[in-house]
Amino acid sequence: xxxxxxLVLFYGYGSIVDLAKNVAEGAREITREVKLARVRxxxxxxxxxxxxxxxxxxxxxxxxSLPDLEWADGLIIGSPTRYGNMAGQxxxxxxxxxxxxxxxxxxxxxxxxFTEASTMHGGHESTIIAMANFAYHHGMIxxxxxxxxxxxxxxxxxxxxxxxxxxxxxxxxxQNEIAIARFLGKRVAEVAKxxxxx
Length: 198
Prior knowledge:
Elements: E1 6-10, H1 15-27, E2 34-38, H2 45-50, H3 66-71, E3 74-82, E4 85-86, H4 88-94, H5 98-102, E5 110-117, H6 124-138, E6 141-142, H7 150-154, E7 164-167, H8 175-196
Parallel strand pairs: 1-2, 1-3, 3-5, 5-6, 5-7
Antiparallel strand pairs: 3-4
């Protein structure tokens, strides 16, 4: 198996899936061992229908499992923002990692984050910070994009020094958002290679 092994773990539909796929593409610039996995949906079918949630965008993406986290040398975790926080579905998945925590299964692994919000001030940064709380407790190494590429300074939509983001009031990612997402994936994979593949 090639090293590093990168897991792009996310919850959501639509543009968050597009972000996840671009993050994975960036990681593939460093390694072929990139796994894209989604967190299970916990909404009942009637809620999915009521809010017209289009689940087609994740139909071909495998559901994540806790062993995926152990398998990975580096992780990139994403969720749409829910009132400035990660979605409950992702939180529920991450809350099941107590056994990994007790044995240090994620300790020292690099991790990055991505999100999307429907408004400019809808919680991009606070959602990334909320997801990072999980990583702090596991002793993971947080790898942000910082200002590593010019698009982070010039974007007028999504993306910033905390992580890759999408301004979701438009459906498609713009070129800056794509570049930032791919940079984040590549950067986490580069750090994972340096830390875990010697």
